[in-house]
Amino acid sequence: MWLNLAGTMRSLWRNREGSALVEATVVVPVLFTLTFGVYEFSWVFYTHQLVSAGVRDAARYAAKAYDPTNPCGSTTVTDAQNLAATGSISGGTARVSGWSAGDVTIVCSNIDNSGGTYRGIGGGATVAIVTASTSFADNSLGYFPLLGLTAPTISVSHSERAIPDTPNP
Predict the structure, then answer these.
(1) pLDDT digits (tens, 9 = 90+) for 44-82
(2) Contact call for residues 55 and 80 (beta carbons, < 8 A)
(3) How far apart are CA 157 and CA 111, in angstroms?
(4) Which residue, 167, 139, 158, 166, is CA-closest to 80?
(5) Contacts of 48 (CB under 8 A, 6+ apart)
(6) Alpha-carbon span 39 to 111, nearest angstrom
(7) I need a labelling partner for 162 at 20 to 30 A (CA). Which of 57, 64, 90, 127 fits?
(8) Least confident interval from 3-7, 43-47, 60-64, 114-118
């Protein structure tokens, strides 16, 4: 009996018929993990690019629409937030699923320029800076939990120097 078992084990060890199946069971999970990981991370980078473009557009719009008598007026802020999230000041379909105009913050601040550090267009005693920023949890494609990771938080900020429209003398 023991002799027969040893002979059977030797013949199984030398048998090559099932080697492809064994190799596939080892390689396929690794291959799928890498493939889906590449898709997931590329989707996050694409989403980050869309959000960055939106925030940059919002900061530029708010800086151009800046009114020194009413800095960061509610209409300008609402329009800039809509522009960031949808690509249009009147609103519409979101650039990124799960990202809304309410997630965008527009802040106007003044920087002391009494020393003349910020020279050039629109220079004066103070320089107005408009900053648009956002931070939200990206839904992504949903593979992060399968890989044992949490979904990333996308945080973007962009500042522009506000140049108020002033009539030329």
Answers:
(1) 999 999 999 999 999 999 999 888 888 788 889 999 999
(2) no
(3) 18
(4) 158
(5) 138, 154, 156
(6) 43
(7) 90
(8) 114-118
Nearest residue to 65 via CA among 52, 54, 78, 53: 78
Cα→Cα distances 167→45, 122, 134, 164, Å: 43, 12, 34, 10
In the block, residue with structure tokens 């429209």: 165
The full DSSP string for the chain is: -HHHHHHHHHHHHH--TTHHHHHHHHHHHHHHHHHHHHHHHHHHHHHHHHHHHHHHHHHHHHHHT--TTSTT-HHHHHHHHHHHHHSSTT--S-SSTT--GGGEEEEEEEEE-TT--S-STT-SSEEEEEEEEEEEE---SS-TTTTT-PPPEEEEEEEEE--------
Kindly give, in sequence order, each residue whose CB lies less than 8 Å from that of residue 150, ignoring residues fewer than 6 positions away.
Answer: 144
Whole-model pTM: value is 0.76
